[in-house]
Design a protein that fits this description.
The chain is of the alpha/beta class and 404 residues long. It contains 15 helices and 16 strands. The chain folds into two domains: 103 residues, Urease, subunit C, domain 1, CATH 2.30.40.10; 290 residues, Metal-dependent hydrolases (TIM Barrel). Strands 1, 2, 3, 4, 5, 14, 15 and 16 form an eight-stranded mixed beta sheet that branches. Strands 6-7-8-9-10-11-12-13 form an eight-stranded parallel beta sheet. Helix 6 packs parallel to helix 7 and helix 12 packs across helix 13. The chain binds N-(iminomethyl)-L-glutamic acid and fe (iii) ion. The site of N-(iminomethyl)-L-glutamic acid has 13 residues, from helix 3.
């Protein structure tokens, strides 16, 4: 006899483990939860006896790991619908940024906003994500750029998990844009990040990782390396917005610093992919930004697949390049726009997303000992989640074994 707080039966599992089956599936299964963790899973007819466990009927649906959105900018003020209109008129994202708009537009609004307002707006976007089965979310700073607002953004991001059942991982993205007060003095801003902001964020334990925007309209390779060096010295893992609008060499830099993930990657060169693989760097694909910016070039998915590179999929939810709070839609976009298979897109929001956040020892797959972050879907097959738009919402969600 085994101990369990509750068990779910009459259910099929998309474990997302590598068990030789697509989606790591186990049909006619049973899964048991004890002390917030999965304690047993397998075929129903091979299950041990669970005395005193509550029984949940899975209605012959599919249970998946809780989804993980591993790249978002959820905390910000205002919107940029006016820039969206300008882009529809043919003005590019880069041109808007070069004229002081873009990220700096949102920086102005975010600096002015109170923490209460930032929290209210972020919470409403987060609720949309969670309704679709997201149980872990990464949230970046990067719309404050000054010390006070960056700290506030990270505090607000962390505080969201007191309001709603979700795990929040935070990332410091000070090197997102050159703030207007440092115009023409980007190197001084990088020094400010390394000498003044990073040590405080480390001391206050406000971030789990450090990110940069390596691009003509962001920061150059030398500047990004300076941030990575300081971040690594303080014990942070790094990641980056790299090779999105042009090739800069940022992905190779991330590999050199043993980073968690390289994100966007439309312009990565084929020969650079093996560097990511060798250093266990996850490729985070952000099809919503590709879609909104009408980008000319797709990430080289076939080469990534051939290299067996872990590919994650995220919303990139932000007011400029991806005003979208739907991870299911990002999965669909990853298939339609980039050519991922439905299984790859689901691995992208589960197992590989967990790896991008260094949570792969506790989240992202259904496995004994792992956190009981679970989503039950009324579907006949897990490939339906990538196939249809707005046709499926979870029947039930559990975070750490607790029903939400
Ligand atoms: O992931 N590339 C830089 N950062 C965001 C966009 C931020 C913005 O436009 O506000 C991105 O695309
Ligand atoms: Fe982003």
């Amino acid at each position: 006899m085994q101990q369990a707080d509750w068990i779910i039966e009459n259910v099929n599992l998309a474990t997302m483990q590598n068990n030789g089956e697509p989606f790591g599936k186990i049909e006619n299964a049973l899964l048991a939860v004890h002390n917030k963790r999965i304690t047993w899973l397998g075929k129903r007819d091979q299950a041990p006896v669970f005395n005193n466990a509550n029984r949940v009927d899975g209605h012959n649906g599919w249970l998946t790991p809780g989804f993980i959105d591993c790249h978002t900018h959820l905390v910000y003020a205002g919107h940029r619908a006016d820039e969206f209109e300008q882009r529809l008129q043919g003005i590019s994202y880069a041109e808007i940024a070069q004229h002081g708009g873009g990220i700096n537009n949102t920086v102005t609004a975010t600096r002015k906003a109170s923490s209460d307002i930032l929290k209210r707006d972020a919470l409403s976007r987060l609720r949309q994500l969670c309704k679709e089965g997201v149980t872990t979310v990464e949230i970046k700073s990067g719309y404050g750029l000054d010390l006070d607002t960056e700290l506030r953004m990270l505090e607000v991001a962390k505080s969201l998990q007191d309001q709603i059942q979700v795990k929040v991982q935070t990332t410091y993205l000070g090197a997102h844009a050159i703030p207007l007060e440092y115009k023409e003095h980007a190197d001084d801003y990088i020094d400010f990040i390394c000498e003044q902001v990073l040590p405080q964020i480390a001391r206050k334990k406000l971030a789990d990782a450090v990110d940069v925007f390596c691009e003509d309209i962001g920061f150059n390779l030398q500047q990004c390396e300076k941030v990575y060096q300081s971040a690594s010295d303080l014990g942070f893992r790094v990641k980056g917005h790299v090779e999105q609008l042009s090739h800069q060499g940022g992905a190779t830099l991330i590999a050199k610093y043993n980073g968690l993930s390289a994100d966007h990657l439309e312009f990565i060169r084929i020969e650079e992919i093996k560097m990511l693989k060798q250093n266990n760097v996850v490729a985070v694909l952000l099809p919503a930004a590709f879609y909104y910016l009408n980008e000319p070039q797709k990430p080289p998915i076939k080469a990534m697949r051939n290299a067996k590179l872990a590919m994650a999929v995220a919303t990139d939810c932000n007011p400029g390049s991806a005003p979208m709070a739907s991870l299911l839609l990002a999965m669909n976009q990853a298939c339609v726009l980039f050519g991922l298979t439905p299984e790859e897109s689901m691995l992208g929001v589960t197992r590989h997303a967990a790896q991008a956040l260094a949570l792969n020892q506790c989240k992202g797959i259904l496995k004994s000992g792992y956190d009981a972050d679970l989503v039950l879907w009324d579907i006949a097959h897990p490939n339906q989640l990538s196939y249809s738009i707005n046709m499926h919402s979870p029947r039930d969600i559990w975070v750490g074994g607790q029903h939400v």
